[in-house]
Amino acid sequence: MTAVTAVEPSHRVMEEAAEWYARLRTGQASAAEQQQWRQWMDRGAEQRQAWSYVERIDRRFTPLQSSPDRHAAVTAFRQARSDAPPRRRQVVLGLAGALGLSWIGWTAWRQTPLSALATLWGNEYQAGVGETRQVTLADGTTVWINALSAFNVAYRNTERRLQLAAGEILIDTAKDPLRPFFVETGQGRVQALGTRFSVSQGDARTLVAVYDGAVRVNLLRSDASEVVNAGQQARFTADALQPLMPADPARESWRRGLLLANGTPLSDVVAELRRYHPGHLGLSPELGRLPVFGSYPLTDVDRALAMLASVLPIRLQRPLPWWISIEARDA
Q: Strands 125-127, 181-184: parallel, antiparallel or unpaired by DSSP?
């Protein structure tokens, strides 16, 4: 039997699929348009897989957009974590099944919150789409959880340990000289030295920013170790630690519902907005390096995108209620 190799559709083909889907779902497409769509589908596997992606994602997000009480629908979508464990299992299996497990690595799959939501299930503390939380742990430590983030707690007589499963947390550690405080990620371990700091992980990297005190970073697959002091930040993989950089105070602005940008690449800004958008948020690849400046509301993604479109050479396309694509503005 010949193996079928999955093809990841380009951004352009994904947009074509969304536009065709929007045109055909009205039920008013002419016979000529339907023939053009079939010809488009016959071009190859890239088109067919893009169509399947749009079709499956539509089943997940259309009920949120068409609900008479959209706010309540989105809230229910965010808070799958609060269901009883068997129900949460069904939610996550449904999220994964909406696309098929073979789609998890796709860039398009990561342009929705579904992949991140699938990683949140089963963790002790978590925050869903567009949701941030503040929790106080047994020792008095305060943890703020960014949207689409999760962690677990393992406190023992000899140590206090958090395991960051996904996303980003901001920590104000309580003092306990007899029990050191650690945060573990997939790339290493961070030890707090009387500290207020944030830890985020993604794309096989961890970023630690220290706002008060200091932390010690130890890598998972290296003997390298580094002390990061207040006002510094460190980015590391399991094997390598990058040179220390000045900490960006804007990194903790999400706690106040804001995204502060000071020359931040548009790709990074969009990646952060995806945490707060219940749908597909795509970005044309050539726009990723555009520098962004200013303050943008995380709690109102539509407004944030409109603000970006007013100052950057971009335009927003919305072929479907839950689908937003950022494209280059026509000259």
A: unpaired
